[in-house]
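Hi R.,

Here's the chain you asked about this morning:
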Amino acid sequence: MARPFADSDAARLRIALRRISRLVDRQINDEGLTATQLSVLGTTARLGTVGVGELAEEEGLNPTMLSRVVGKLEAAGLLVRVPNPKDGRAVSVQVSAAGHALQERMRDERTELFAVRLAGLPPAQIKQLLSALPAIEALAEQLRRPAPPARAAQVSEGSRS
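And the predicted structure, written out as tokens:
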């Protein structure tokens, strides 16, 4: 199937989005949290009380790695483990009050950073970025879903070469 874009354009978009994410995290994260810890905290805040297995799947982490991350966030007072009343072996996690406060503060700081930097762009570029928002949001939603089987096979084959 022919793509309606060049691979180099897809690479440019991927690199630009990753660079933006890293730069924002670097400028806003004064808590000393890793990118993985920030992601787990953010995902937990978004999902509410969530099982550790579901959180591992959502984050794409193996259970051992997730357990370490959750442990560090719990030790920092940002997450709380909640026993499952139906299954004593299962554990869920939720964001603590301190975790919610940190999430809100960092979200506000990120929004302010974007607002200031957007305001520094020429009006035509601001308009282009804002009109691209629906497409970027749709791409983010596509990436949250598992790849279709045919595409997953193509990606696997491509990564071997």
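The chain has seven helices and three strands.

Let me know if you need anything else.
M.
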